[in-house]
Amino acid sequence: MAPNVGASAAAIADWMAALPTLHASRSTMTIGGLQAEVVDAKVVDGAATCGWGDVLIVSRTSKPDPFAYGIGAGQQMRIILVDVLPGRTVAMFLDDQAHPGFDALAAAAMPIVKSFVFSPSPPST
Predict the structure, then answer these.
(1) In Å, what is the CA distance from 116 to each residue of 20, 48, 109, 111, 113?
(2) Which of 46, 48, 88, 105 is buried deepest, with most CB atoms within 10 A?
(3) Could you tell me the CA-to-CA distances from 69 to 1, 32, 56, 110 in Å, in that order?
(4) pTM for this prediction
(5) Mind listing the pLDDT tens digit for each residue in 30-70?
(6) Strand duo 22-31 + 34-43: pairing
């Protein structure tokens, strides 16, 4: 994600939906009493991709666990973003890379996602 993108669910969803390399549609839903931003995305035919063939949508270079995650050509992905605390956004990803048939995957997974309940305060350590 670009460094100038805000940390809220809406800001992240706005950024993803505006990427010229993605066909993206947006909606909202409620999960555990909190509003969630939903982005359904596919790679645009002929879009520029990173070295391993994905459109990069999430990365973290910090320690202890740096990672990068993207959408591959021919893949469909649903990204669900929930602001659980100020400055704390939870991101959930459903993709059909290993599960042919996104509609069947979403039909099975979305009732589970809708059942999530988020704690109103951060856990103590």
Answers:
(1) 32, 35, 11, 9, 6
(2) 105
(3) 10, 26, 6, 21
(4) 0.82
(5) 998 999 999 999 888 887 777 666 676 666 666 677 666 77
(6) antiparallel
Structure tokens, 61: 């270079």
Structure tokens given for 124: 């103590």
Q: How far apart are CA 29 and CA 17, in angstroms?
A: 17
Q: Which two tokens stand for residue 11?
A: 């800001």
Cβ–Cβ < 8 Å for 32, 117: yes
Q: Which amino acid is at 110?
A: M
For 4, 56, 107, the CA distances from 114, given in Å and listed in that order, are 30, 26, 11
